[in-house]
Write the structure tokens for this entry.
Amino acid sequence: MSGAFENRIIRGIIDLAAIALGAIVSAFAIEEFLVPCTILDGGVVGIGIMISQLSGIPLSVLTVVFNAPFLVIGSRKMGKMFIVKSAFGMIVFSAFLQIFAPLDNATSDYLLAVCFGGVLLGAGVGLVIRSGGCLDGTETVAILLNKKFKLPVGKVVLVFNVFIFIVAGFLFGFDRAMYSLLTYFITSKTLDIIENGMDQTKAAMIITNDAKEISNQIFRRLGRTVTIMEGEGLVSGKKVILYCVLTRFEIRELKDIIKSVDSSAFIAISDVSEIIGKHIKRSGVIDEKNNTDTR
């Protein structure tokens, strides 16, 4: 029991360290790239940037003030650890917004600000989310709406952000709104990569006349097992279909295997958003959901 408790403590410390790092990177992206060019982030931070530009109130203060009510709203529904991690991340985020504000801007070029600011912001926010927290209260509201009304979190956040960008267009010019929207898409894509990992799972479906040899080569060279199914083509008649789950880094090796064995094979490769259950590899039984060896 003590060992499990110690593991939870260590895991919690690692999560808080990752959240702190993500919050610092996000604050740097906003203060050094986006704010100097009047490019908005989405959510509460975006509202804070608009009010800060118009009133002169520090963004760090507005971020704390605007996020606090969302933490209170979510405190009874989201779980204690989520609220603790989110509150910690928001405090670190606000503190470093204040620290970075007086520093020289990283660039005054709008395109560089959009690209580098979007990538850094996505990386920072993705690291926070992957560690179990969030930096923006609108995400908390979106999750609550999803639980109660089954509204997709991504769509709720997108609608809210589009509204913010439209308002920004009237206040600062629609070129700023378009820059902000472009930054949002770059941030979202980077966030997905960080949150899901670079080794995003792929699924390959292979239709071949030499299923046995391809299956053996996949198992020997990639350590992946293959599900073998029977199929029938409208013109080509009976076929064997192989189904294999692997990472994006193994796709090139898979293509080389198939090309060397059956160059006429048909291959379809698709993304896999989630794996539930156990997947067998040569080294043992791997729980893909938790990435643990269950031998």
